[in-house]
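Box S1 | Example of a co-folding query
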Amino acid sequence: MANILKFEPTDVILVKAVAGERITPGEALDVYRYADFVKVMAAGRAARSKINDTDVVTYTLFRIVNYTNVCSSACSFCGFHCPPGGPAGRVLTIEEIFEKMQAAISAGARQLFFQGGVNPDIPFDYYLDILSGVKEKFGADIHIRAFSPGEIQGMELLTGKSAREIIRELKAAGMDSMPGAGAEILSDRVRAILSPKKISVSDWVRIMEACFEEGMYASANIVIGSVETVEEIIEHLRIIRELQDRVGGLLSFIPWTFQKQTAKFPIRPVSAREYLKLLGLSRLFLDNVPHIEASVLCMGHGIGELALHAGADDISSVVFEENILTSYGHGTEEDARRFIRNSGYKPARRNLLYGNAD
Ligand code: SF4
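Box S1 (continued) | Returned holo structure for iron/sulfur cluster
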């Protein structure tokens, strides 16, 4: 292990990044492999203080509605999905969606996240109807984040339309932003092992570009803790940075770790050190992405707090329904605010576009 009081060659890279100079993928690889995680955290925090308000950490509240559990992607890590035609498969009716949304509104959330699977049996009109139905019933100011690139690709196959046409129609019906979900590790080698039927790297990037070209904003994630190599982690960061350089529309980046949901999934436990190093490096490398989110949901409160001192300026949000991950998150808004205060920051509520919602 490196001595943090001793000069190391990777210190030069960290100082360069904090000074605002862009670091190369090769330099990022050296940092990931050789730098002391405490130095990477300190550099990540210094870089964050130049981009975001030093004293403030943001959070938001939204309702996740898992509108279907049917998915043809069959990712090996997913314990949520049911194959098309399976007996446990279901699709929520618009009335059921209204009920869930009503409960969230009563608890103070005016944001909704439609999350499902790639369900080949849902007609395209269903998506338009649930978007426009929520807006009509609860108001045009309800923010609807919906449909990952994989779900959009499913709609392409269903309708024969292009991603841009589909996104344009979804936007007209009420979709406000997209999750960059389904990225996990942007390596076709890893995807061939973990999720061979899932959207490819080039299609994920193509659909995110279409989203930005249609004027929508999104987030993106990375999920580590399986068969990926360090080179593939850095390649993922490179793809994200270049996507943002080309068509910018990413508001945030979220490093996550895989959660054990199925017996067959080859999990690699990620140490706190590795997670915090990735988080700090993400802040340094992704100099064109405004926000880095700490995943308290995946990592728990102790490591989540350290992440706020390693470059993150936002925490995983208060979520009213989450069927896909084990929850170590915040059950209430006050829990989230207390967590931020106890971490040494002022809490500020934001909306899904990072506007002030206090
Ligand atoms: S993780 Fe998403 S895309 Fe993969 S099987 Fe589960 S629902 Fe489908």
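The pocket of iron/sulfur cluster is lined by residues 71, 73-75, 78, 80-81, 117-118, 150, 182, 195, 198 (CB under 6 Å). The radius of gyration is 20 Å.
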